[in-house]
Amino acid sequence: LLIGSGCALYPLGWDSEEVRQTCDNSSDQFELGSCQIGWAYYCTGAGAAAAMLLCTWLACFAGKKQKQYPY
């Protein structure tokens, strides 16, 4: 959840002075102007989604009782 919220809030900083200077003064919140998002941002979002799905799937099977095999 924290990684996903970090990815969602990340574009709020695109209107800072440093980003505007780097992206030809055309960036704003949720609009990068002449800059591009790198592959690491997409990998972080995909990893957060995969971790959320995996944890949910594992939690569903955590309470299931296994069969007892007589020996």
Class by alpha and beta content: mainly alpha
Binned, the helix content reads 40-55%
Individual helix count: 3
> Measured on Cα atoms, how large is the radius of gyration?
21 Å
Shape: rod-shaped
- The proportion of strand residues reads under 5%
Mean pLDDT: 83
What is the number of strand segments?
0
Give, in order, the helices and strands: HHH
Q: How would a textbook summarize the main sheet?
A: none
Give the N-terminus to C-terminus distance in angstroms.
44 Å
Low-confidence stretches: none
Word description of this protein:
- With 71 residues, this protein is an all-alpha fold.
- It has helices at 2-9, 17-22, 39-62.
- The longest helix is centred in the C-terminal third of the chain and has 24 residues, at 39-62.
- The protein starts with a helix and ends in a 9-residue tail after the last helix.
Short summary:
The protein has helices at residues 2-9, 17-22, 39-62.
What keywords describe this structure?
single chain; mainly alpha; 3 helices
